[in-house]
Amino acid sequence: MEDLQLNVALLRKRVPNLTTAAKNVGLRPATVSNLCTGKIPIGRAEVRTLVTLANLAGCTLDELILRGGRLSMIETGIKVLDLFAPLVRGGTMGIIARPGMGQLVMLGELFRRVKQRSYVTILWLPKELVPGIEDCVNEAEHTCSSIDELASLVMDLRAQHDVFIGADRSTVLSGELAALRERIQMPGVMPVTIALVDCAGESVDEDAPYGPLDTLWKFDMDLSTRHFFPAVNPIASTSIILEGAQLEANHLAVQGRARKLMRRYRELRPLVMAKGIESLTGEDKMMYERGERLEAYFTQPFYIAEPYTGKAGVSVSLQETIENVQGIMDGVADHYDIKELTYIGKLSK
């Protein structure tokens, strides 16, 4: 039988006092609790029980039951991430960047955004505080200095909440991250998603700086020096969720087409910088200009940067991003000036 899981996050979000609500509609609280923790497999649950839970949550059975073998993404509302390298729920993500390219700003922004999705956020403090870590400290709901403190907190929280941890690469090198994973292993509880940054900025010189990753975001020096933020390379960044058709067909199609366009645009850019746009003709000129607009569209104001930039943070849904990117590639934004596409949210109608 296909591996099935209850969408506990959805249940707890829509039915805060779940056991009491279940009892009021004739379900045994112990049964509901065991379904949520995995002690009772979904395949052994009565259909009446599942239908009742779906009615309580105001959702369909398809929304209530997660089908195994299919990874799920955490939609961040950050255009370039959600399209090219989705963050895997319950996975490990690593950022490759040098200091000053915005990786700590990204971590702080992620803390704020996943909190809005009812994740509990924890910052595993590095041994030495570094410039820029203050934003992460301010955005995290909890901070921990030791593995003992962190493991205890995670075990307490994940019975009812998805947990999102931000940590420095030093925890990988010391073996503490592997030790943490062993200590928090527990079936039938909410996932723990881990985001790794490299405060020392040495990851760019390593082949596999974090070991196996589910999501990799590689920052780009050229984008950073041109102040195109987030400075995430759309070609070099990736996610295992892209493998094996884990995404919706339209997402995969648009993502693949956009990646191809951005690769060609980047190949042509040195030539244009040296000889001007007039050196291109025909399809190359069109691909360059649309790639340039797409690159500008992927810039985005962050909420935590509002005090410094004066621009209000924006979030763009995945569906809007897919529609906008497809439109730009099809030429609907050909009349836009590049500056009109820089640091916007979604395209205006």
From TrEMBL:
Keywords linked to the UniProt accession: ATP synthesis, ATP-binding, CF(1), Ion transport, Membrane, Nucleotide-binding, Translocase, Transport
Primary location class: membrane
Molecular-function GO term, any one: ATP binding
Keyword Cell cycle appears in the UniProt entry: no
Annotated GO CC locations: proton-transporting ATP synthase complex
Compartments where located: Membrane
Stated family: Belongs to the ATPase alpha/beta chains family.
Protein name: F-type H+-transporting ATPase subunit beta
